[in-house]
Amino acid sequence: MIELHGNITPNPQKVVILLEELGVPYRIVGYDLLAGAHFTPEFARINPNFKVPAIVDHAPAVGGEPIAVFESCAILQYLADKEGRFLPSDPRGRSAVTQWLFWQAAGLGPMLGQAGHFLRYAPEQIEYAIKRYTNEGTRLLRVMEARLQDNEFLAGDYSIADIACWPWITAGAGDLSDFPAIARWKETLDERPAYARVLHGDAAIPPEMLKKRMRLTPEQWSNAFGERLLEAPCQQ
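RESULT FIELD:
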């Protein structure tokens, strides 16, 4: 049994998709992040960074005590290695997958995430910040578009690199009319059974979380972006 600790946002969705693809038994341990439910000593032992997702593998391949893993792409790599699927063992294939996996973790997710933050959560609409992250997000989409014009999937065969990118494209990329190769790729993935739970089931992002403007209470702001989040590592 894999415990998946997280709420339903793009990064935890990556892990749900892979677990569904692998057919591995799992359960989701949910957290209301806006209420600060993750600021506990118990969660700190699983993830010292106080972010979601994280997993606890109660039956690690090496045996022994459960293994906790945090950071979504590290979780994808851990599970793919354990099950021997969606991450090649040969050096060329593995390198191709990890390059695009790290590209998502370092670029696509953070840039689309920051664009969404300044558009939806920031108390003031800061034109420079919105333009900065939106432009960089667009540039990264062009990189992805060019790659997919000549490849069905990002790293040749379907892999955890595609799984990592799909939730951010679905939730954060917006209209794909200028990116036909990405739209074709997304449609292909949408048809895979493992994605149904994320599109239509209990792992779908709630509609209220996709509003154009989110108004947080002072307590919610502190838990998500402010003082309580900043102070959490000092309280372990």
